[in-house]
């Protein structure tokens, strides 16, 4: 059985597969994983472990120690390389591209087999473009919905807002909370739709705010929650290297 781990700044998602069957999965707060490790008590064995991490290095070290102690497997760390699984990296220095963005692009291209616009709506919103022949064209990074709200809260004296709720972003807000929430969502949606008008492609969205953004788009988009984990599985051993302490 193989465990694939997507370690982000806010949450760590993981999935265990036995062949093509998912036998266990979970999502845990990154801070809690750094402190106590993943909750894997129900698993009896693992043959391989792979991680894609954009979180603090201390998290990777915690996972490495846990997996070696609990299952006697080495943790393999995903890296960005010039080409994997038919996708060529658009960065002149591939190792400066976020590994989560790279894996999501690989998975999306494998899923659609053509041009794709890949949105990861997490702490930051990243938008990556992959051409019809698998050429990664580069991408964009902007604050996620929560970061937009917090920036307004911290940068002004009178703007304080509650949690974002489902809403119609095209109806102007009649109070500050609604105005902020709708403005943040409109900003994210407008960015995606503007790029989609310039780069005809399938649209796929992943990340914690994916369902809200996908629901607000006027364009068809697929919500794929485990896109980064899918990319890690597609790339497999070709793409990972063993971390040896």
Overall average residue pLDDT: 87
Radius of gyration: 19 Å
> What is the number of helices?
7
Weakly predicted, low-confidence segments: 239-245
Total number of domains? 2
Distance between the termini: 23 Å
CATH architecture annotation name of the largest domain: 2-Layer Sandwich
At the third CATH level, what is the topology name of the largest domain? Nucleotidyltransferase, domain 5
Number of strands: 13
Let me know the largest β-sheet. 6 strands, mixed
CATH top level class name of the largest domain: Alpha Beta
What's the structural blueprint in terms of helices and strands?
Layout: E1 2-7, E2 11-18, E3 21-29, H1 30-36, E4 48-53, H2 57-71, E5 75-78, E6 83-84, E7 87-88, H3 99-112, E8 116-121, E9 124-130, E10 136-143, H4 145-155, H5 176-198, E11 202-206, H6 210-216, E12 222-223, H7 227-239, E13 240-242
Parallel strand pairs: 1-4, 4-5, 8-11, 11-12
Antiparallel strand pairs: 1-2, 2-3, 5-13, 6-7, 8-9, 9-10
Describe the model.
The structure is a single chain. This protein has 245 residues and is of the alpha/beta class. The protein has two domains: 2-78, Nucleotidyltransferase, domain 5 (2-Layer Sandwich); 83-227, ATPase, nucleotide binding domain (Nucleotidyltransferase, domain 5, 2-Layer Sandwich), CATH 3.30.420.40. Helices cover 37% and strands 28% of the residues. It has seven helices and 13 strands. The chain has helices at 30-36, 57-71, 99-112, 145-155, 176-198, 210-216, 227-239, and strands at 2-7, 11-18, 21-29, 48-53, 75-78, 83-84, 87-88, 116-121, 124-130, 136-143, 202-206, 222-223, 240-242. Strands 3-2-1-4-5-13 form a six-stranded mixed beta sheet, sandwiched between helices. The protein has a five-stranded mixed beta sheet with strand order 10-9-8-11-12, sandwiched between helices. A hairpin with a 3-residue loop joins strand 1 and strand 2. Helix 3 packs across helix 7 and helix 5 packs across helix 6 (210-216). The chain is globular and about 55 Å long.
């Amino acid at each position: 059985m193989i465990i694939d781990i997507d370690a982000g700044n806010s949450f760590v998602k993981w999935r265990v597969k036995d062949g093509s069957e998912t036998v266990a999965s979970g999502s845990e707060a990154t801070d809690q994983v750094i402190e106590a490790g993943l909750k894997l008590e129900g698993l009896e064995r693992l043959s391989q472990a792979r991680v894609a991490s954009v979180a603090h290095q201390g998290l990777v070290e915690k996972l490495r120690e846990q997996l070696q102690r609990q299952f006697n497997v080495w943790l393999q760390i995903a890296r960005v390389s010039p080409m994997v699984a038919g996708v060529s990296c658009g960065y002149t220095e591939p190792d400066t591209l976020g590994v989560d963005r790279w894996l999501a692009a690989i998975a999306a291209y494998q899923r659609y087999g053509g041009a794709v616009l890949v949105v990861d709506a997490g702490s930051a919103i990243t938008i990556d473009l992959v051409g019809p022949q698998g050429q990664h064209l580069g991408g964009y990074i902007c604050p996620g919905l929560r970061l937009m709200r917090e920036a307004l809260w911290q940068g002004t004296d009178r703007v304080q807002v509650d949690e974002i709720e489902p809403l119609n972003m095209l109806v102007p807000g009649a109070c500050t909370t609604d105005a902020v929430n709708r403005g943040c969502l409109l900003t994210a949606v407008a960015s995606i739709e503007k790029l989609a008008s310039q780069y005809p492609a399938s649209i796929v969205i992943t990340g914690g705010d994916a369902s809200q953004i996908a629901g607000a788009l006027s364009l068809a988009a697929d919500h794929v929650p485990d896109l980064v984990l899918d990319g890690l599985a597609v790339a497999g051993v070709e793409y990972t290297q063993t971390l040896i302490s």
